[in-house]
Amino acid sequence: MFYTANQTIFSLDIQGVEDSEGAKLQVLAFDGIEAVNSEYIFEITLVSKHLRYDITKLLSKSAYLAFTPDKKQGIHGVILSVKRAAIGHDYSLFKLILSPKFYHLYNEVDQRAFVNQSVPEIISTVLSEKGYQQGDNMDFVFKFKEDYPKREFCCQYEETTAHFIHRLCEEEGINIFYQHSQTNHCMVLTDDNNYFPDLDNSFTYASDTGFVADHPVFKRFDVNLNSSTTEASYRNYNFENMKIPEGNAKGEQSNKANNAQEPSLEYYDYPQQHMNKARGDHYAKIQIERLKSFHVTAEGYTDIPELKSGYCFEIEGYPSLDSLDSADKWLTVQIYHQGRQPQVIEALGSEASAVQNTPSQLHKYYRHPINEGIQFPFDEEFKQGYRNVLVGTPKKTPHRPEALHPKSRVLGSQTAIVTGAAGEEIYCDEYGRIKILFHWDRINPQNENSSHWVRVASNWAHDGYGAVVIPRVGMEVKVDFLEGDIDNPIVTGAIHNGVNKVPYDLPANKTRSVFKTSSSKGGVGSNELRIEDKAGQEQIFVQSQKDYDQLTKNNHTVQVNNNSHLQVNNEHSETIKANRYQHQLAEEHHLTDLDRKTQVLMNDYKTVGIAEHNTIGTVKTTQAGMEIHLKSGLQTVIDGGLSLTLKAGGQHIVLNPAGIWMTMPVWTGGIPMEGTPAVSMPPLSKAGSVAATSAPVPRPLTAVQAQTMASDAPFCLECMLNAMGICATDFSNKTTPDAVLDTNSLNSSLGAPSFAGGLTDGLSSSMTGLTSGVSSLTSSMGNLTSMADMSSMANMTNIASLSNLTGSGLGSATSGITDGIANGSIAGSTLTEATPSFMGSEASPLSGISESLGSTTNTLQGLAKDPTQAIQQQATKAATDTAMQAVNSNETLKTATETVQQGADLANKAKQTQETLNNATTAATTLKTPDISSTTTGFNPNGGNNV
Question: Where is the composition biased (Polar residues) (predicted)?
Answer without folding.
Answer: 847-861
